[in-house]
Specification:
alpha/beta, four-stranded mixed beta sheet, 18 strands, 33% helix
């Protein structure tokens, strides 16, 4: 999409969550990088957050550290936390930064630890009605956006990994989807785009592969308990964003070059759109 077609969106802020599974194909990675630069060239302010689940799992397996998921969250022991931190900030983030900087050197990698971008607090989850301890897993309790706003106002693209600390300096594994939603609210984003490895939100998975093209926040809140555990954090993040003032969140297939971020931002029918009301505006 040509920058002139996006000109009406100049000055708007978009938070893009680059999913772990969507980033495993080098060719698609280059498509992603071009899309980010296309948005930036049109005058949009872009913040990239990223996952890294497949890469973390591979490293844990390589090091012989057991890992499991409960309720869509990775149970994180102290040993696993060291690997999560190393992979997300030392490997995956570097790859994303380098991918973007190959086109133009504007990407800057930061984590939730930097300038206390995210203050985390330990979380547990409820599985089958019971409270479950999932280890060093945190949720975002506070966002200090100064470092991000400074970077975007100076023309850079922040690339954010979600590893974060609490007030005492304890490091936590914070779900990247959750962090993206919280960051979108804090920076006053005009859209949150979740790039993932599915076409969107399925209406009745696994019975049907029909994708929901639009859903309101209230409809989504009612649907979340019925979703696959892997989709729950993504949709909770979208719900957090739109209820926090972001006009719309979008779930887009990052494996499909036709699912351009630019198309999602301009409102073309790609993936699933989540908004507060049926027309996609603010309440």
């Amino acid at each position: 999409m040509r920058p002139d077609l996006l000109s009406e969106f100049a000055g708007k802020t978009v938070v893009v969550k680059y999913g772990g599974n969507a980033m495993t194909d080098p060719a698609l990675g280059r498509v992603f990088a071009r899309q980010i630069h296309e948005l930036r060239a049109a005058g949009l302010k872009v913040v990239v957050t990223h996952g890294g689940g497949p890469q973390i799992s591979a490293m844990l397996n390589q090091m012989g550290i057991e890992s499991e998921f409960r309720g869509g969250q990775r149970v994180t022991s102290p040993e696993a936390m060291n690997v999560v931190r190393m992979v997300l900030t030392g490997l995956v983030q570097r790859d994303v930064v380098n991918l973007l900087n190959e086109i133009e050197p504007v990407a800057v990698g930061i984590s939730g630890e930097d300038a206390s971008l995210f203050i985390a607090e330990r979380r547990g989850i409820v599985v089958d009605g019971e409270q479950v301890d999932i280890g060093l897993v945190g949720e975002v309790a506070q966002v200090n956006i100064g470092v991000v706003t400074t970077l975007i106002e100076r023309g850079y693209v922040p690339v954010v990994s979600s590893v974060s600390c609490d007030d005492a300096g304890q490091v936590y594994n914070v779900n990247a989807d959750t962090a993206a939603g919280a960051l979108a609210v804090a920076v006053g984003a005009d859209a949150l785009v979740m790039l993932t490895d599915v076409a969107g939100l399925y209406a009745d998975w696994p019975n049907s592969d029909e994708v929901v093209d639009h859903i309101t926040a209230d409809e989504l809140a009612a649907l979340i308990p019925q979703l696959d555990s892997g989709m729950i954090p993504k949709m909770e993040a979208c719900l957090l964003a739109v209820r926090g003032g972001v006009p719309r969140a979008l779930v887009v297939d990052g494996r499909d070059p036709a699912g351009l971020i630019a198309a999602a931002v301009t409102g073309e029918p790609v993936g699933t759109v989540i908004s507060v009301n049926p027309l996609g505006g603010r309440s």
